[in-house]
Automatic annotation (TrEMBL):
Residue intervals of the Galactose oxidase-like Early set domain: 608-706
Annotated spans, Disordered: 728-748
Source organism (scientific name): Streptomyces pratens
Superkingdom, taxonomy of origin: Bacteria
NADP among keywords: no
Protein name in the entry: Galactose oxidase-like domain-containing protein
SUPFAM superfamilies: E set domains, Galactose oxidase, central domain
Keywords carried by this UniProt record: Signal
InterPro entries found in the cross-reference section: Gal_Oxase/kelch_b-propeller (IPR011043), Gal_Oxidase_central_sf (IPR037293), Glyoxal_oxidase_N (IPR009880), GO-like_E_set (IPR015202), Ig-like_fold (IPR013783), Ig_E-set (IPR014756), TAT_signal (IPR006311)
Residue ranges constituting the Glyoxal oxidase N-terminal domain according to the UniProt record: 261-588
Signal sequence segment: 1-40
Keyword Signal annotated: yes
PROSITE patterns registered for this protein in UniProt: TAT
Length: 818
């Protein structure tokens, strides 16, 4: 049972008149001295606990915490300076924390300025390694709320130790903050002499190093060398190269020939190396394991039958790709086939997979679990099962407490029953519906992303359509804050409109036209690039790119990728801060081998910071890691490298690294300690790109770091500081259903009418609404979208495209007959 955070507020200090009248009644615990003030620079009132309050807490301090634990708050004489310090102790803990916070009141909580940063400091002793510096902020509209954890304190039982850390930029709408030390393991933390000072470093005016348009909108370039394979899967490897997986590349001819391909692209020199590929990994799942190898699961066992009675089939095969040798090695089989599966890495390095199509083309209701410890897929009797069908490529995002958030983004047709979004608790084996996702059955090939930073636990879902009913794709965005007790999606700003090409050249979008097949990429300045997409089922490419700012929840339209990027396209962040886009596979079966690279505006804002030294590339949870930079920076973060396909990369995340900046030894703040989260569910083990970012949002080139524990653990096992977010969702809760083998699905699940053309040609089962229901209108639309000759497979002609019954659809006589 998750407990709501409980704060015991210190009563307001009595006024001077009341205090004087009550002198005779004062107890010995209440000081008669004036409140210990903040110094000229220090924004903390009563920083050393020397002034007592009206209750059992010092003036301007309050008790806070949650969960099942035994605790005490004590004012102790074991002080760093003066006569008093604060001791918070847990003698028993099942969950939760306890903390002494700066009182959340207008009288005591320091006033802050949005957009500015603050240096926080304190002295401490600790008999537990489970203590961290935690911030809360007061939003002018929403009131007090958790902000972030900044630093894990080392265990220092005897000697007083100073801890310092710099806040992120204060979010818009914030007028005050409160903070203190959270104790979340058995033991005690004694703290004293708190300080808080505004960072006074001036922000230099950014210089523009490109044209005015490049500085405002960035720049797209189409690379001179084409991608040699029909890749629809893109994985950025920890050596900086990119694995591009094609398998058969949605080509039945290549499938029949047994021609399966991958390529490794090197951004340094622009070369491709085609890699032998053992199986048809077309529409597989993939995820990066904690050691940097790539786990590739399932794929295409067979294309649909010519008569349309059998659909795609997903095999049980699984492989790992080693970036060092650039070879695939087979693992044991999964328990079920999963063509179009989810693939989410967990905080202990395990991988969980749901959904997709089985070997018989039905929907898989089996959850498969890869054990990092055993390096194999576990047998079904060791994996919790709900027997739920989650759809194809369901976007399952790991939450900070180890649960999974199904965002509602999926592929092919309608969403799951209910609200279309849910929280799955693997340990409890329960599914709880989450409300608020608009048009939940038109989020087919939408994109979902955990917004920067991961500590904020907000998810953005963008666009989508429905391949079966084939309406105009939508402009919807929905945002959910998983820190809320009862989280619900709320409407975000609509995706900006661009142009759409119906076949006669781009024209402006109208009405509520949006896009599906779009990509969303986390950028190192803390924004999100959304790009690419199409208006209909594998047709009508949309040309629009914009940058979403999570702080202001606004879109800024920027330069547009000149290449169509619809079905089977990918977009992903490179270690140099650029974004690469590949692919496009329209319904006529063709493939776009051109590759585009986008340089965001931040690459035209002057010199980039440089990480001049990295003391250690092997990181553990709760670490403090030191780097040096060539000039002061405003923030640093870890970004998990992409493993993306079909608008989906549920493992993409941006993890903030709070800074402790040493500017007192003559280095002008260029020696920086980075404070790593103690929670492996916030940053699952593996390789990450480390970016340092200056005050203008200009990032360094990334350094690669490897994050893991002595043995990778879940947040629960590691005793990490986990908050009681989403602790009281009110949606419908279901446990395991009846055991069953599969979910029955129509063979046209991919939205293509298999009565016409080859398997990689997709004639819509439903045409766009503006296309008339006649052979002439439908054939004109197919011609406009560059479909070639379409043979009729078998005797059925459900779309009435072969009116003269000569076995060829959309011939001259067919159009004349209407």
């Amino acid at each position: 049972m998750r407990s709501r955070t409980i704060r015991t507020r210190t009563p307001a200090r009595p006024g001077r008149r009341t205090a004087l009248l009550a002198v005779g009644a004062l107890t010995t615990g209440l000081l008669l001295t004036a409140p210990q003030p903040a110094s000229a620079a220090n924004l903390i009132t009563n920083p050393g606990f020397e002034t007592a309050g009206a209750g059992d807490m010092p003036y301007c301090w309050e008790k806070s915490g949650w969960g099942d634990n035994d605790f005490s708050f004590t004012t102790t004489s074991d002080a760093h300076s003066g006569d008093r310090a604060m001791k918070v102790e847990l003698t028993r803990r099942t969950e939760g924390d306890r903390k002494a916070l700066v009182a959340e009141s207008a009288e005591c909580a320091p006033v802050v300025t949005p957009g500015r940063q603050y240096d926080l400091g304190l002295w401490y002793k600790s008999t537990t390694p489970d203590a961290s510096l935690t911030l809360f902020r007061h939003d002018e509209t929403a009131g007090w709320q958790y902000w972030t954890d900044l630093k894990t304190l080392d265990m220092r039982p005897a000697a007083w130790t100073e801890a310092t850390v710099r806040t992120p930029e204060v979010p818009a709408g914030t007028d005050r903050i409160s903070w203190g030390v959270s104790v979340y393991g058995t033991g005690a933390a004694i703290t004293d002499d708190y300080t808080m000072e505004q960072v006074t470093e001036p922000v230099p005016e950014p210089g523009c190093t490109g044209t005015a348009r490049e500085c405002a909108d960035g720049l797209w370039e189409v690379l001179p060398t084409q991608n040699p394979v029909r890749s629809m899967h893109s994985v950025v490897l920890h050596n900086g190269k990119v694995l591009l997986i094609a398998g058969s590349g949605n080509s039945e001819e290549l499938f029949e020939a047994g021609t399966f391909t991958s390529a490794v692209y090197d951004p340094e020199d622009g070369t491709y190396e085609v890699v032998p590929t053992p199986d048809d990994m077309f529409c597989a799942g993939h995820v990066q394991l904690q050691d940097g190898r790539v786990l590739v699961m399932s794929g295409n066992k067979g294309y649909p039958s010519a008569d349309g009675t059998i659909g795609y089939q997903g095999y049980k095969d699984s492989y790992v790709f080693d970036p060092e040798t650039e070879t695939y090695t087979r693992t044991n089989d999964m328990n079920d086939g999963h063509w179009y599966p989810s693939a989410t890495i967990l905080g202990n390095g395990d991988v969980i997979s749901f959904g997709g199509l089985r070997e018989d083309s039905t929907g898989s209701v089996t959850a498969d679990l890869w054990s990092d410890a055993e390096q194999r897929w576990l047998p079904m009797n060791r994996v919790n099962q709900t027997w739920s069908y989650w759809g194809l490529y369901p976007s399952m995002i790991l939450m900070q407490d180890g649960r999974l958030f199904y965002s509602g983004s999926h592929v092919f047709g309608n969403n799951i029953p209910g609200t279309g979004s849910a929280i799955y608790d693997y340990d409890a084996n329960t599914v709880t519906e989450v409300p608020g996702l608009r048009n939940k059955d038109e989020r087919d090939q939408s994109a979902s992303v955990l917004l920067p930073p991961a500590q904020d636990q907000k998810v953005l879902t963008l666009g989508g359509g429905n391949i079966d009913s084939n309406p105009d794709a939508n402009r919807l965005t929905d945002i959910i804050d998983l820190k809320e007790a009862n989280p619900s999606y709320v409407a975000g700003p609509p995706i900006p409109q661009g142009t759409v090409d119906y076949g006669d050249g781009p024209v402006p979008q109208t009405g509520d036209q949006g896009k599906m097949y779009l990509s969303a990429v986390l950028l190192p300045d803390g924004t999100v690039l959304e790009t690419g997409g199409g208006l209909h089922n594998r047709a009508d490419p949309v040309f629009e790119t914009s940058i979403f700012d999570p702080a202001s929840e606004t879109f800024d339209p920027v330069a547009v990728d000149p290449e169509a990027r619809g079905y089977h396209s990918s977009a992903f962040l490179l270690p140099d801060g650029r974004v690469m886009t590949t692919g496009d596979n329209p319904g006529n079966g063709s493939w776009n081998h051109n590759v585009s690279v986008y340089s965001p505006p931040y690459l035209f804002k002057g010199e980039r910071p440089v990480i001049t030294s990295l003391i250690d590339g092997e990181w553990t949870y709760g670490d403090t890691q030191r780097i040096t930079v060539d000039r002061p920076i405003a923030k640093a973060e870890l970004i998990r490298p992409a493993a993306v396909t079909h608008s989906s990369d549920p493992n993409q995340r941006f993890v903030d690294l709070p800074l402790s900046v040493d500017g007192n030894d003559g280095n002008d703040g260029t020696t920086v300690d980075l404070n790593v989260t103690s929670n492996p569910d916030l940053a699952p083990p593996g390789w990450y790109m480390l970016f340092a970012v200056d005050a203008n949002g200009v990032p360094s080139v990334a350094e690669w770091v490897h994050l893991q524990g002595p043995a990778a653990l879940t947040a629960k096992d590691a005793g990490a500081h986990v908050h009681d977010f989403a602790e009281a969702p009110e949606g419908k809760v279901t446990g395991p259903g009846r055991k069953r083998a599969a979910e029955p699905l129509p063979p046209t699940v991919s939205g293509c009418d298999r009565h016409y053309g080859s398997a990689n040609v997709c004639v819509p089962t439903a045409f766009p609404t503006e296309v008339g229901a006649t052979a002439a209108a439908r054939c004109a639309w197919l011609k406009q979208n560059e479909y070639g000759t379409l043979e009729v497979n078998g005797k059925d002609d459900p779309l009435r495209l072969d009116r003269n019954r000569d076995g060829v659809a959309c011939g001259k006589d067919d159009v004349r007959r209407g």
